[in-house]
Every structure is written in C-alpha cells, then in structure tokens.
Amino acid sequence: MSAVCLERKPVLSGELNEIERKFSRMLADIELENSHKSDHEVRYETETLQAELLKSKSLDLDIEQTLQQTAQDFEDAAVDEYNKFVFESRITEADKANDLQNLERKLDRHLLLLVQQKQWDQKIWALPQGLQKDGETMLQTAERVLREKCGDDLTVQFYGNAPCGVYKYKYPKMFVSREEEGPVGAKVFFFKAQYIAGYVDHNKLKLQEFKWLGREELMSSLSQEYYRNISQFLIDEE
Amino acid sequence: MSINLFFRQKLSSAVICHHVRRLILPVSPNLGQQRRSSIYEPDYLETGKPKIPQYNTLNIQLKGYDFAVLENYQKLVHKIAEGMDVEVEDGWAVPPQHLKVQRFKPESTIVDTEYTMTVYERNVQVIHLPSTVGSILFEVLQTALPEGVSMTVHEHKEEHEETRYIPDAELLELKSQLEELRGPNVKKK
C-alpha cells in the first residue's frame, strides 16, 4: 500500500518571539555599523554640508541644485509612502471561522491533508492510502491514490521517487483469511508531496471527509502509533 | 607501507589498462589479442559504483533583494548540506541584476513613482547527491527559506560557467581591430 503525505507549506514567515526580535535588531545594527555608506547617505551628507555653508557664508544659491529633489525630500517622501501602505492581517477569515477544509488557515504553519478512511468496521482519519496494483511502482500508486481520492484539480509536486516512511500493521484476527498463506497485515509506504495549487474535488470527498490540519491538531485525530510513525518524517515546528 | 604503495600502483595501472582498452576496441577488435580470455577487469569497478542513483552536478541558485540575508542563507545552505554528508563543491556570487520599476498612475502613462531594485544572486554547487537524500535536502532548504529569497535548483551546464566570467573589453576590442586589419579576403588556416 502507498500513502500520500500532502503538505501545504507555510505562506508567511512565523511571528518572532521576544528574544528573536531583540537578536534580529542587534544583527541589523551590526550590519549597519559594518557596511559602507550607500549612495543615498553620501548624497544626504554632502547636501547637509552645503546647506550649512550656505547659511554661514551666504553664497549665491545655485538654482539648478534647489530645483532637484534633495536627499532629505526623497527620504521624507519614501517614509510617507511606507506609512500609507496597509499590510494585510496575518489572521485570515478562515482562522476566525476555524474552517478545517479551507487552505487559507494558519498561513505561517504547515497544513497536512487527512482523509477519512474505512478500516475494517470503523472509520478513521489517516493520510490517503491505497493498494498497489500490478505493474505499478509505489510512486505511481501514490499518484493514482491521490487523484482518485481528491480529484484532478489538485496540483501537487512529489519530492522524489523514494518513500519517506513505513507503517506496518497486522489485520485483527477476525478479518484474516482462514488460509495460512493469506496476508496477515499490511505495510504502508508514505510519499511526501507539496501542495502547489487547486482544491480538493467536493464530488469525491464531501466536507466532513477531509481536513487540513496543523501539527498541533494531529495528535488528537490520529491513533498514537500512527502519529508516532508519521511525526518521524514531518519537519518540526516550534 | 610498501604494500600500500604497491597496491596503489597496481590500481592506477589497472585503471589505465581499462581506459586504453576502451580506446583500442572500436578500431581493431582482433589485432594484437592473442589471448582467448577477456582483459582482467577488477570487480570493484562495478561494485564500487553507488547503489543508489545520484543526481548530476546540481546548482542551487539563490536570488534576493537583501544581500545580507542572502549571504547568510547561503552559509546556512552550505552548513545543512555538510551536515547531511553531501559534497559541496563550490559556492559563488554572480553580478547583480539592476531593475528599474516604474509605477504608473491608473489608466495613464504618467509615472507615479520609480524604484531601482537590485536582484543579488548566490550559487551553491553540490555533487554526488544520492536521490534519497536529495528529496529530504530540497524539502529542508525550502522550509528554511527566509523572506525575500527565492531558490532554484538546476543542473550545471556550460552557460552557467560562462556567466561567471566578465568579458575582457580590451581583448575583444583588439581582436576586432585585428580582424579589420586582416581584411575580409584572407582565408583562415
């Protein structure tokens, strides 16, 4: 069996905590002290010197120079423009509504696709998985499973030909076939993919049957063993 | 010690033998071959090859507007690759691209504001990357990308090597002058 670990990567960078903010400010100061003067700074300094000379010695004003925009004017205009610009808020509507099917949620964190699957007699939440058919490589199985479960609209990029994890489980005794040679359990190989564009097809999966979860919410939806296996190949977040 | 040297000599002569055989074969397969058996090729030439397929020489190209952040990210890429036991061959910078962006007033050609932006570039070259490690490496680098930096990974080709060199204007000028002096009728030998 192969399964697809489909993740939407974070769109925004995470918020910095107190220590990180102080450190980044310190790094910026160090960078400023170590760097050479930029063209703008040089121009600013020469113009302030000229202005002081004009005041003290009352030289003839050079008409050409006064018509050009001085460095101070340019800086003021730039600062004005920056203050006028309105940034989008980090918390989107999907965050407020806690809409688990929406991809706009949690823009600074990873979102993992979970699908409701029928296992024996109950329904459990798991990564979309399916059986391998004859003549197919495991990666082709994974692609086929994703297309079948979520439709063609979803554009996805698989990371490589090799799987990133395995999960083995045994079938419970009631479901094992009576013969000795029948399958006793299954091995699921996970393939990592990143989400690029598109939406999950609602005809194939109704709203209750899939959800995009952040890392903190995974533990509550998955069984402990499954979660332990999966968390080994998911990139950590604080 | 002496056994080591002897072994090393034997190895180099075996490799030379192998290369020479490759050169000779297409020309005359039967001349000079008095032995019926094939030339001895040591086993390690086949078993020494890596079992997991490897990528060709890859260039990780990093582009961004803030070169302090960009250079630090190049350092991080190098560290991550070294930590994963990936051979980092080379790391270089490419002259920046200067862009002039003009913002027009809506539905007219009057310039509202003008911006001069520079796109800085840094490259990291990686060789002998096994495909299994490659997928993990790309994902980790993608997750660690800072704001304002974009990353492209491509195979190393000749034109990438060419862009690193600044053409010598004097030399080109002298060459063109020489061509003019020679005249159009002189045949090239």
UniProtKB/TrEMBL annotation, chain A:
Residue ranges occupied by any Large ribosomal subunit protein mL46 N-terminal domain in the UniProt entry: 2-95
Top-rank lineage group of the source organism: Eukaryota
Gene Ontology molecular function: any one: structural constituent of ribosome
UniProt-annotated location(s): Mitochondrion
Principal location class: mitochondrion
Keywords assigned by UniProt, alphabetized: Mitochondrion, Ribonucleoprotein, Ribosomal protein, Transit peptide
Transmembrane regions listed in the UniProt entry: none
Transport is among the record's keywords: no
GO cellular component terms attached to this protein's record: mitochondrial inner membrane; mitochondrial large ribosomal subunit
Entries under InterPro entries matching the protein: NUDIX_hydrolase-like_dom_sf, NUDIX_hydrolase_dom, Ribosomal_mL46, Ribosomal_mL46_N, Ribosomal_mL46_NUDIX
Nudix hydrolase domain segment(s): 110-218
Family (UniProt): Belongs to the mitochondrion-specific ribosomal protein mL46 family.
Name of this protein: Large ribosomal subunit protein mL46
Species for this entry: Cryptotermes secundus
